[in-house]
Amino acid sequence: MRGLFKKDYKPVRVNRSMIKRMRSDSVNFGLAGGIVVAFLMLLMNLAYQFWGLFPESLSLVQDIYGFVGYDLTWFGVLLGTIYAFFDGFVAFWLFALVYNGLRE
Predict the structure, then answer these.
(1) Which of 23, 31, 86, 88 has the most CB atoms less than 10 A away?
(2) Domain ranges within the chain, ordered by starting residue
(3) Taking the complete model, does pTM exceed 0.70, yes or no?
(4) pLDDT in tens, the chain (104 residues)
């Protein structure tokens, strides 16, 4: 147990390069989240187009994005994927910023 509770623990000093790296990690986390959310939106739209699945979920998405041109057409599939990437990026990027801010 001595290794777990050392009395000579010294906090790590944060320098500018560490902060710059944390910011870039937030952007990378946002990009990864945006890609995942866009891929899931694409799958959900394609499942509706081919098999008629998820009509209730897509009507909710249409209520949210309908004012900017999203609908259940092939162009809407592309547009919904782009909107989902943007929203996923912003949400995951903000999450990473808050997380990094609370860690400091």
Answers:
(1) 88
(2) 27-103
(3) yes
(4) 455 555 666 666 767 776 666 667 889 999 999 999 999 999 999 999 999 999 999 999 999 888 888 888 889 889 999 999 999 999 999 999 888 888 76
